[in-house]
Amino acid sequence: MQNFEFYNPTRVLFGKGMIARLDEQLSPEARVLVLYGGSSAERSGTLNEVRAALGKRTFREFGGIEANPTYETLMNAVAMVRAEKLDFLLAVGGGSVMDGTKFVAAAVPYEGEPWDILVSKGEAVKRALPLGTVVTLPATGSEMNCLSVISRQSTGDKLLFSNPLVYPRFSVLDPMRTMSLPMKQVINGVVDSFVHVMEQYMTYPVDGMAQDRFSEGLLSSLVEIGPRIVATPEDYDLRSNLMWVATLALNGLIGAGVPHDWTTHMIGHEITAKYHIDHARTLATVFPALLKVRRTEKRAKLLQYAARVWNLTEGTEDERIDAVIRKTEEFFESLGVPTHLSAYGIGAEGINDLVQQLEDHGMTHLGENGDVTLDVSRQILEAAA
C-alpha cells in the first residue's frame, strides 16, 4: 500500500427530517447565501424546508446555477456575497450546485482574477468562506470532498480544482429529497458513482486490501441498486443506499493509499464541454472503451473485478476480461445509458476536436502511470465510437 494522508472534516447529517437540524450547524449571527439550481428545489419543497430551518437569520438566495456550473453565472453570486457582506454559503442541490458553491467560497476573498483558481487547480486558494450543503441528487460525492469542476462559456473550458479550504463544514443527506427527481438523473447518479469507484480501483494492485474490498462492495451495491431503483422508485431504503454509496465513492476513503486513474473523467469533461452531454453519460461512453484499450496495463485488477464483482471465474484470463468488459457495458446499457459516442452523433471529426481540447488543457499524460498520451486518448475515443 502507498503512503497516504487522509483528512475529511465534513459532518454528515443523514436521514429523514435532517434539514431541520440546519439550525444547530449555523451561528445565529450567520449571514447566509442559499445557492441552488432550477425550480425543482422550490417545487420539491426543499427550499421551503431550508428557509424554515434558517429561521430569523439574515439570508439571501441565488438560483440558476447550471447543470455544468459556469464561471459567468457564479461570478454574479460572488458579487452578491461581496455586496451584501454575507459570510456563509449553503448549497441546496446536486453536484453542480455544490461545485459552484465551492468556487464562490474560494473566489469571494480571492485577490485577483478568480479564474486563476481553476488554472492553478486550486493552489492559488489561501482563504475561503465556510460552506455547507443540502444534497438533493446523489451522484458526485461533492458533499464530502474538496473538489469542484467549473465551465467557462466564453472559452469552452471545463476545469477542476481542489483545496482543503472548500470542504463543506456539514452536509445534510435526506433521501426523501431525491424522490421527486426524474429517473434519468437518478440513473446518472448510479453511473457517476460507479465510475468514481472504478477510477480509484481499476489501476494495478498495491495490496490495499481494505480499499479493494470496500470498493468492490460499493460496486456490487450499485449493480444491485441500479435496476431495482428503476423498478421500485419509491423505495426509501434503495434511495438511502444510493445516497450513501455516492458519498462514500468520492470522499477520499477508498482512494487513500492506492493509485488513481482519472482518464475517464478528464476525457468526459471535454465531451461535456463541447457537446453538453450529461456528465455521467460521457463517463459511460469512455470508461468501457478505456478498459478495452488499457486491458494489458489493468490486467490484474480486471481479473480481480471479474471474479469479485461479477463472479466470472471460468474460462481463460482473456475470456474473463472480455466478459467483464461486456458486463460493464451491459450494466450501463440496461439502465438506458448509451456506451458509444455514435449515440450522440459524434464521429471522427468530433474525436479530432476532443483530442485537440485535451492538448489545449494540458491533458497529455493521464492515467495511473502518466502514460495515457494524446495518442492513447485518441485510441480510447475511437474505441468508444
Automatic annotation (TrEMBL):
Record SUPFAM superfamilies? Dehydroquinate synthase-like
Domain Fe-containing alcohol dehydrogenase-like C-terminal: from-to ranges = 187-357
Q: Domain Alcohol dehydrogenase iron-type/glycerol dehydrogenase GldA: where?
A: 9-175
Per its UniProt record, what PROSITE patterns does this chain match?
ADH_IRON_2
Tell me the organism's taxonomic lineage.
Bacteria, Pseudomonadati, Pseudomonadota, Alphaproteobacteria, Acetobacterales
Ordered alphabetically, the record's keywords are:
Oxidoreductase
The protein's name is Iron-containing alcohol dehydrogenase
> What Gene3D superfamilies does this protein map onto?
3.40.50.1970, Dehydroquinate synthase-like - alpha domain (1.20.1090.10)
